[in-house]
Structure formats: structure tokens, C-alpha cells
Amino acid sequence: MHRRIMAPGALAAASLMLAIPASAASLSPGAPGIGDPYYPAYGNGGYDVSHYDLRLKYQPATDELEGTATLLAKTTQDLSRFNLDFLLDVSEVRVNGAKASFATSGEHELEITPNKALAKGTSVTVVVRYRGVPSTKEAYGFNAWLRTSDGGVAAGEPEGAWWWFPSNDHPLDKATYDVSVQVPNGTQFISNGTLQSTSSRAGWTRYNWRSNKPQATYLATFAAGRFDVTTGTSESGIPVINAYSKDLGDRAGAARASIERTGEIADWLSEYFGPYPYNALGGYVPNTNTGYALETQTRPFYSPSNFANGSNTSVVVHELAHQWWGDLVSVKKWKDIWINEGFARYAQWLWSEHEGEGTAQEIADYVYASRAADDAFWSVEPGDPGPENQFHIAVYDRGALALQALRNEIGDDAFFAILKGWPAKYAYGNASVADFVRYAEEVSGKPLAALFDTWLFQPSKPGAPAARSASIAKSAATTVQPKSWKKIAATNEVHGH
């Protein structure tokens, strides 16, 4: 055995080494996915973003987007490297002021290695400079950027951010936003929240929008084009900004007749779901050829096709209901999509009742009776539909049917207490289907696992005894199509991509 004798200088150096936190030994890269079973590569591990500041310039003629994104975040582990989800071309990255190295990997990953490793709990400022043409970028064989004749639009679920800003792209990481975009004079820019200011210089106009409440990345929206913009205030005092493409043609009137009722509908929904949770309202209709609508926070995106057969307030009800169910309370994982879609659909049933076009019970009876037991509709489990069926009609209609079964089981008092209490309990956060089942049992004082299992998790049509127990389709032979059904069915593809 040999004993090593250290000189004083070496001993001091060793002491310094011992002073380095033990956590330094555990430095590792952040995971390239946040842990969602449906989309393993979406989102990232190792940090949590609190704010996005996006300062961009967009040229509609060429679809070129350039600018700087500043992310404020905090590390949740000791990090040697971390990822952002992004597709455009990056020229520089800085972390806490120092240049960082970066590379791309996978379908949509931007890997960033800071100049100095980041200890857990560190506040981090990440600056990314970039440019590119979003309409030329693909991931997983598709492009979610919507190119229009007069600009471009980002409004997609479950992904859409990659095409215009680097992010931690999963609903678990919500943040506030400042979105500042410069466009040529004559072009408008629409985004979420409140319009803080506009300024013009040398042929360009800059629009500055702010979302001051936590917002999931897929709910952030970018819309540059030529719009007619209307402004107003809801009866409850919320400012309303709506925007309509100048190229909507004969659908313009129907779109306006529907979306201009946004303030009224939001006030009506607040009677069921509690106070409207944001300081801005509105909607916008760019001239896209898509078939879906999306609950982009405070200002839903609508497709012209939503109004092809005339005005349709039902689709407006659906997207505004999401401001509580999906936006205020977001999914923990994408398998919890019923929390969003089943409730937004049920809001349409309540609107039908409000408009005197069929009660929620009558619609539930019709949904149950109109689909045979061997219909593939019943093979989809709304409580965990799988990524291939995330926006299947069963998640909407069977999902709403489950809510009518719940209402009949626990009574109106408990049911409507749940509709109002749930958004308050999980406000600005995330929750799962399992969380909802527990909450419903807590409020109602009843065991409900079997009911939810029957209506949400069995790949088959609930049998007659279950239907009778839930007071569904008591007279299937005489069930008739409710007057509102065509308008409700016209929104069946609102999220179909």
C-alpha cells in the first residue's frame, strides 16, 4: 500500500473539487420528449418555460419568416444539453447571454449545448435567431403551416408551433406570450390575447400582441393576411376582436353572423363553466381550404368551410367552450383528449337546448339509437382513443353521451356543480381523465368508476341495461333527429386534419 502525500497547492485544489455540488456529477441531457405515450418525441425534458417573447418579420409574398425568439425558463434537472422543438433554420443561439452550440436531430429537434452546464433550479434565458420559409418545412411527412393567397397561418393540433417558433411543444409546459410581428403595410397580423400597440415605418407595420395567462404552445396562433377587423365588448366587459379574410366570398356573411355572437356566447357559457378566464375574446377566419376549427386561446381559428351551409353558432360554441375545457384546463397527456372534446361537444348540446332545437337528453337518445352495435363508432374508447383516433367522432359524440349518462346518474345539481367547479379547481393547469373521475365522485358522493368504464373505456356499445340505467334511449324506436343535429354534425370535422 502506498500513501500519497499532497503538497499544499494540490490539497487546496482537491478541496475546491470537493466543494463542487454533488449534482454536477449528475449532469445529463434533457430528454428529447416530455413523456407523452401518443407522441414520444413531442415536448422536451429538463426545463419549464414561463414566457415566450417572439419578435418576428414576415413577408407574405415569399412566405419568409425571420426573427428572434427569447424564452424564459427554469431548469428542472442538472442539464448538460437541452432540446427545443423547431423546424426553421437557426443562425445563432445564446443561453444566459453566452453563445451556445446547436445542432438538429430527429424530425423536429433543435439540440442546444450551453457554454456552461446548468444546475437544477437555474433561471435560463434562451435566445434563438432564425429564418425560413415555413411552407417548405415538413416533419413526419406533413406540413402544418397554412399558406394563404395573402399570407400564412399557424393553427394546428397537436402540433403547429414548430413552423414559426422554437418551443417546448406540449400542453404540460404552458407559458405567457408576447408576439410582435412586422408585416408589409396593408397586411394585418392577428394573434392571441390583447393588441398592445401597432407602429408603422418604412412600409412595414408592427403588431404587438400579449397573452398574459398561461397558454399551451399549440394554442398560440399566427395569422398574417388581409383582414376586415371588427372590435367590440361583451356584456361582461371583455374586449372582442374578430378578423375576416377579405377573400371569403359568399361565406363572409355566414361567418360574420356566427362569429359576431362570440361575446354573447362566451357570456352564456360562463353561466355553466364559471367566469370567462381571459381578458380578450374573438375569432378569425383566414381564407384557408381547411375543414377544421381550433380553439386557439382567446381567439379561435375558423375555416371558411365551417360556414359553407350558412351561419353556424354551434361551431362557435364548441371552440369557445374549449377556452375552459382544453385551454384553461389542459390535458396532462394527449390520451386525455376527452377532457377537451367531450365537454366542448356537450356545450353544443346545451346550446341546442338553449335555442329550442333539441334537449341534451334528446340528442343523447338520438346518438345512442342511431348507431348500431356493430358500428365501428363504438370500438373507439373516448377515455383513451389512441393517437390514430384522437379526433375520431366517437371522442366527441360518445364522449358527450358519457356526460349525459353522468348527469342522469348524479342529478343536475351535482352535474352542473362539476361543470363549474372543475375549471376553477385546475385553472391554468393540467388534468387527466382519471382526475376528472375522482373529482366527479368527490362532488357527487357516488362511486362512478363503473359508469365511466362503460361509457368511456369499453370498445363496444353499452348494452340496453346500461343505457336504461343511465336513462339513455329509453324509447329508441321513436327517437327522432333533433332539429339542431345538422348544425352539430357540420362541426364533426372541426379538428379533423
TrEMBL record:
It catalyses: Release of an N-terminal amino acid, Xaa-|-Yaa- from a peptide, amide or arylamide. Xaa is preferably Ala, but may be most amino acids including Pro (slow action). When a terminal hydrophobic residue is followed by a prolyl residue, the two may be released as an intact Xaa-Pro dipeptide. Its EC number is 3.4.11.2. It is an enzyme of class 3 (hydrolase). The keyword S-adenosyl-L-methionine does not apply. This is Aminopeptidase N. InterPro entries: Aminopeptidase_N-like_N, Aminopeptidase_N-like_N_sf, Peptidase_M1, Peptidase_M1_aminopeptidases, Peptidase_M1_dom, Peptidase_M4/M1_CTD_sf. PANTHER family: AMINOPEPTIDASE N, PROTEASE M1 ZINC METALLOPROTEASE.
